[in-house]
Every structure is written in structure tokens, then in C-alpha cells.
Amino acid sequence: MIKKRYAVFGAGHGGKSMAAHLALMGFPVALYNRTPANIEAIKARQGIMLDSFPEGPHGFGRLDLVTSDLEQAVQFADILMVVVPSSAHGEIARLCARCLRAGQTIILHPGRTGGAVEFVKVLADSGCQAEVTVAEAGTLIYACRSTGPAQAHLFSIKAAVPLAALPATRTAQVLEAVNAAFPQYIAAANVLQTGLDNMGAVFHPALTILNAGWIECAHAEFEFYLDGVSPSTARVLEVLDRERVTIAAALGVRSHTAIEWLEQAYNVEGSNLYEAVQNNTGYEGIKAPPTLEHRYISEDVPMSLVPIAALGRRYGVSTRAIDAIINLASMIHSTDYWRRGRTLEKLGIDGMSVSELRRYVEEGVRDK
User: Fold this and answer.
1) Looking at residues 79-91, what average pLDDT do you find?
2) What's the structural domain count of the chain?
């Protein structure tokens, strides 16, 4: 059987881990990063050394192509794995629009909230004529960190990760395409479900802000989840989580609670969110951000919390806790994340009724 050819976009924590893992599994792999200096060592070695948890993949993943030429990476691959901050999704779509070919699959890891919707809109606005399929994962499949210029470490691989295509009628074909490499991906109902089952939106900004003093004084010398999630901070996360799940319900989507997600992704349980997080050995060793100038705020607030809050406002769900985190983040970074974020207007779904929005994500049909 001919193996699918993968191009991994992004050479950060997730991109390096995914490229090395795919290579160790025997797939042809290209790694793209827009900044040549960031992949210089990988290019010189022609691969990435992957370290892992005891039963996980280990070894040197030899790559077929390491490049800062986006078109070269696109032409190499059958499947494009986009593992960049979601704030870059629109730019990647704009650049890819001119060189995609029919039949290719693009998967965002993850889409955060509205990632696939934005990507498809930008492709269309950029005049892309190729018939491609865009999908998104609900979360990054790995808990991982880059540990050197050409090294990465896996703390864990999630047991199950929901994935959906836009439209959802194409989800099955995407799952079939990636199954040989990633059987952990399972079908989500649609990209509303993957976008609202966005646990980064629940965990990352609030935990970073609530631990701001510790981060600025300790400079990441504590474990983000196991130390940063106290009984009190966990109660704040539970309120954020309830608002998110309520918005999903208003859109007719069954969204997992944070506790349910931890059980699905990591096989851990707890009587409350604090206990479930503390029982998760997959979080061991993950340090807190060294600074508040971090993607846990600068990415997760505008690309996750803002569109979730916008959906709440549009469909009549109170988001007082989510709004509070967005406002605090805006004050900390002296910026207006409400304006910078993924608004419904930017996603091209403003004014849609619930039934119109669902028809679009499930069938790809726009009524207006």
C-alpha cells in the first residue's frame, strides 16, 4: 500500500513532535517553517530526535524535506498538517490558496474555535480553485515540548481526539486518510463541536491570568496544571466550562465537559475538575509559561474565547465569566482582544440563524 505523504506546517512544540512521530512510523514527511533559522539544525541533521514517555515512540525521525518554501511543502504532500498558532491560520490559507491541488486534505491541529471556518473563507476570498478538504482536530494530539533545535519530547499521546471536516459530510474520508498514522482521531459531529470542545479556551487563559503573580515571580518554576490548578482556580475553570457547554447546547451540539474530556483524552477521572486534573499523570512535567507574553493569552483569547463569547451573544447565552477573562487579558496586554479576535463577521457567519449555521457546517450550504 502506498503511504500518504505528509507536510507538517510549523516547527514549534507540536510541529516538531508530529513530524518526528510520522517519520518514525515510516511516512514520507516534509517540515515547513517560514523562518529558515528555526529549522536550520533540523535541515542540517535531516530529521528530529524524539524522546518520549516510557511506552511512547523514541528515536531519530528522518525527514524527506525540510524547507521554508511553502509551495514546495504543499506540492510534496497529500495531507497538510497545520500545527501553527491559530492566529496564523488565515495567513497560511492565503499563501496556500495559490498552490493547492485538487484532492489534498488540510487538517488544523487544533482549529481552536472557528479555525476551519476561517480557513475555508480565506481560501475562497483568495480565489482558490482547487477542490480540497479542510478539517480540524479538537485539540493537539500530543502533550509535548520542543527540547532543542532538533529535538522534541512527548509527555503523552491522547487516547482519542475528535476531528471534523467542513462540511461534516467529508469527515469520514479524512478519518480514513489519516487512520494508518493516527487511529486516535474519532468523528466529531461537525466543526461547531470541535470548536466548542476547545479545552485550551477553558484552561490556558484563565490559569495563566490567575497565576500571573507566580509566573512573573517564579518564571515558570512550577508545574502549570498540577501546581497552577488549585481548588479555587478549578472552580473558576468550572464556571467557564459551564458557559462553553451551554453555548454548544444552544447550537444543538453536545459538548463534553472538561471532566468528560479529561477522561476521554487521558483516561482520568475525578469527582470535580480539581481532582481530575490532579489525577492526570500526562500533565506531569509541563511547566507554566515563563512570561505573561505567551500564546496562552495572545492566541487562546482572540482565537478561542472571543469567538465563543460572540456565539454566546449571538444566540442568547450569558458569558460573564468568559467576558471577564477576555477583559482581564486585554488589560494585561494593553490591547483590545474583542477587536483583534475571530468575530462572527470575520468568520463570515454573522447573521446566520442556528439552522443556517448548522446547515453550513454539516452540508457546506450557505443560505445567505
Assistant:
1) 97
2) 2
